[in-house]
């Protein structure tokens, strides 16, 4: 079964950029195989069997188990352990070695998943803040192509959101305006006036398309 599961799953990138997609798909597949309670930590633990003087007992019970009762409880334990191992192995096979070292050895599959999520939340915050700083500092070089700058900006945006970070529309618009440079100031003023007159919010998507169109027109003028 694990071979089929692994085929369906994305692996978590070393740069952690696909964490949100990875987390959703891994959890979905684990649940589809009936292992969701082991992932979420609400599965009932089998009663513990202990041995004393050659007899087997359930912990807290002074009556010795019959052979059939012993086999029944041990089969339940084996089934529980197998499902726990399946969830762990799905996680282990699809994360970078550096993360495997950090999460292995936890008491349960749920604890393994919980630790992975905790590590990723901390790492994602640090990394997304760094990416957002890069977005704010990105500029089109002199004589550079603004469309290439916009493409870089969009990649940074997708990387932030892919790791679970959030970017407000206003932040994204500000990043676009800064990245385009002085030659697009008149365009931005025109778009702002149009937005006020029509009472229509200026979106990042519309702004990007307007800049690209302006760049095409500037290219055409240079060829005249």
TrEMBL record:
It holds the Pfam family Retrotran_gag_2. It comes from the Eukaryota. This is Uncharacterized protein. It comes from Lentinula raphanica.
